Input
Amino acid sequence: MARAFQNYIAGAWTNAANGKTFENRNPANWNEVLGTFPNSDKADVSRAVEAASAVFNEWRLTPAPKRGDILKRVGDLMTQHKESIAREMTREMGKVLVETRGDVQEGIDTAYYAASEGRRLFGHTAPSELRNKFNMSIQVPIGVAGVITPWNFPMAIPTWKIFPALVCGNAIVFKPATDTPATGTRLVELLVEAGLPAGVINLVHGGGTGVGMPLVEHPKVRAISFTGSTQVGKTISAAATNTLKRVSLELGGKNAQIVMADADVDLAMEGVLWGAFGTTGQRCTATSRLILHEKIHDSFLSALIKRAEKLRLGDGLEANTEIGPLVNQSQVDTVESYVKIGKDEGAKLETGGERYTEGACKNGFFYRPTIFSGVKPDMRIAKEEIFGPVLSVIKIKSLDEAIAVLNDTRYGLSSSIYTRDVNAAFRAIRDIEAGITYINGPTIGAEAHMPFGGVKETGNGHREGGWQVYEFFTETKTVYVDYSGRLQRAQIDNQ
Ligand code: NAD
Output
């Protein structure tokens, strides 16, 4: 009998008020039901927001270093349970064990960073233009924050949002993706075990319309941190306008790796294999386009096809598996539709382009690594996010052309260039339109203490990770202390 999971509201585990549930299944074996989860709605969201609101004042007044101590304990607990969390995550969303371990590690790194940030949360001091007056700014919590996350990094992405939000003194309502509710639950269990007071974290399971949107629309929710598709991000942004709440959006990508003629081609080969087919292409930073210089195009492409065909598909829990399944049927449908679009547009399908159903894989959503060559920058497979193991190869003649092709998309998350020419590398750093640029590394590989996010339709200007996310989760209060004992008028008495 599969476990019946629950919401966590006001410090108690509870079912959805409407009594409805949904199932969570293993994408490597769709017959395996991992659990049932509350299919909550607006009533549960309201209860959760009220619970968070009720404890906010007490949490706000808890010293930030003490809040940080709880996150230190969460980091320790995640370290202790790393393997079991990773295994559960692989069963729930499919990516291979080495990657789910990395996903947990990113959460651990984020916990320890957040714990230490409890002893910083720096403000500024600046001189006053008047005598006997002191000026400073301090960072204060916002209130109740809503956290809405996708399924592809089920532990790392929620921790990027929840840990900084907590250390800054906010209370949280968290809605994980319906494909990865067990990992979301595990995170909340660890926060509770670490001693987070009741009501400070609330977990509400359910869909985007039933739970996500009521959270965005709730007037008592003062900030929303969302990671997901650009389409949903725009809907959220529009809905949040009515209550003028602060919204951080981390959205889609169409990331590219450039390989110049002078590059270390072996290194570039390892980079594109990892970037394009790691996590079965289901990363916001996945390499979806490979921009190859004409001098190395043919040799690089033929070697790449051979390597891609050798990648071992299978259950991510098995030791020698390199590529797990896609997360669900809808992802398979999207990938299949883009493979058809690519063929219809006249690109050459070099390898893949079909589901993989050998042996036990017949019960899962496996798809062969797929490479299109002869792709033109204006084709849809060169412009639109696919979120699967599909790589579009584009031939270019110069660095200028490579950068122009790379920039020719509505997204701007990650980017990469392989070259031994330092001048070319610095021109790429200057001219590529993306939130992240790697030199001689693949498009994936974010570190928890560095800002993460993108430009154009990848986001709305905020960053996760590093020091910047602490600005998102706090308000700046400007403070003037006049110790002159008399009325001093700025811009008047000092002229
Ligand atoms: P999605 O947009 O479908 O869903 C994301 C979350 O939003 C889920 O929890 C979902 O239930 C919820 N949601 C859906 N509709 C909603 C609505 N109307 N109101 C409120 N919430 C709603 O995305 P997904 O399929 O889970 O994830 C894949 C997408 O996420 C890709 O586009 C990928 O590029 C993007 N992504 C971006 C980043 C980044 O940092 N830029 C990281 C990971 C994934």
